[in-house]
Amino acid sequence: MAAAEDASASPLSAWARHLANPPLRAAFGIGFCILLAFIGTFTYVNFVLVREPLSLGRMALGFVYFVFMPSILTTPFAGVAVQRFGTRPTVWGALALAGLGLPLLLLQSLAAVIAGLMLVAIGTFFAQAAATGFVGRVATIDRGSASGIHLACYFFGGLVGSAVLGQLFDRSGWAACVAGIAVSLAAAAALTWRCRTSPPDIAMTPEH
């Protein structure tokens, strides 16, 4: 029956079903907030790194982006974490880790800023991986379109982040931009409360 519904549902009706699903809406919002925070961090930190007192040159600035290496190594474990702890604790823990990196971004120490960037990258990558897996589990029909909506919200969050946080950076400085990033992470954490399924929160169970 579910397969027949999948086949007969039009794209618009499938999208309507997804948007009427509160846990899915929350996951879409989490994706939006995560890339907003990520883009806000890694776009505008460049201006901080090249000016005094850090004063990095172009070559050194390029090497800074090796901060993504730890997140590349840790993100594949998001599925394991979700199976063991559930989606909400996993996302909350990842967002908290990213949040711990934000105060470090305000220090006038290159080592501190690099550590902060690593924490933000690890936390946001991990949270996004968990949220993406959640979308695939709770979509009742047409999981492909649900994933598409999630990605659209994710990238739209990046567009909004570059615009809104850019205005904060231009008008009020880096500290205000970091505060905006913190608000976005907090919003993602609040939305995570609605990402609830029947326990255990893992794939391949009848409840999902």
What does this structure look like?
76% of the residues lie in helices and 0% in strands. The protein contains ten helices and no strands. It has helices at residues 2-8, 11-19, 22-50, 58-63, 68-74, 78-85, 87-101, 110-138, 143-172, 174-192. Helix 6 crosses helix 7.
Structure summary:
By secondary structure, the chain is an all-alpha fold.
Number of helices: 10
Largest sheet descriptor: none
Strand content: under 5%
**Global geometry:** globular
List keywords for this structure.
disordered N terminus; disordered C terminus; 76% helix; single chain; mainly alpha; 0% strand; 208 residues; 10 helices
Question: Any chance you could write out the topology, listing elements then pairs?
Answer:
Elements: H1 2-8, H2 11-19, H3 22-50, H4 58-63, H5 68-74, H6 78-85, H7 87-101, H8 110-138, H9 143-172, H10 174-192
